[in-house]
Amino acid sequence: MSKFKIGRPKLTDPLISKDERKAHKKELHKEWEKRNADKLRKYHREYQSIRKDKQKLKYQRYMDRHPGRKRELHKLWYSKNKDKVKMRNGYYYERRKAALIDVPIGEKIKITKWIQSWRCLLFVKCHWCNRELRPSAVHIDHVLPITLGGKHRLNNLVVSCPRCNLSKHNKHPKQFLMELSQSSSDKNQTQFFS
Description:
This protein has about 190 residues and is mainly α. About 65% of the residues lie in helices and about 5% in strands. Helix 2 (about 35-65) crosses helix 3 (about 65-80).
């Protein structure tokens, strides 16, 4: 017998009918669960801690067999836990919002003039990879990301292609330039050998 088996109350009265016995058994079981709530919680915690790895493996196998189900479960979790998601994501949104609000009016005017100056050109060069693009296809990027303490100021804004901006994400400029130079050298080597 396993140490996790919990004894249940048994009905031994032969005068009770089968349906009455089931109903009475349910009532007794509910009463027993109320009396032994702490014992049950402890049992479930121990059981879960022992089976944690097995459960994780079982879940991964199930998700591999049913890839669409994972998305459904995530959507369901997000819909039920909107407050947790807001709290988790709120930190980044609030920090970004605070950085944008902190911009002086004179700086906002300079930024809009800067944007207008390159929007009327035929081609604009990406700050990171020097590719020429149409002004309608470029992104405005913060050199030092706001999440790393950068400000929304003209001296921190550059024009970048969507590929560079999206791959840079919130990396430090030095780190991103190193990655960019490594990827470009890998491309040059493959072109040289092919």
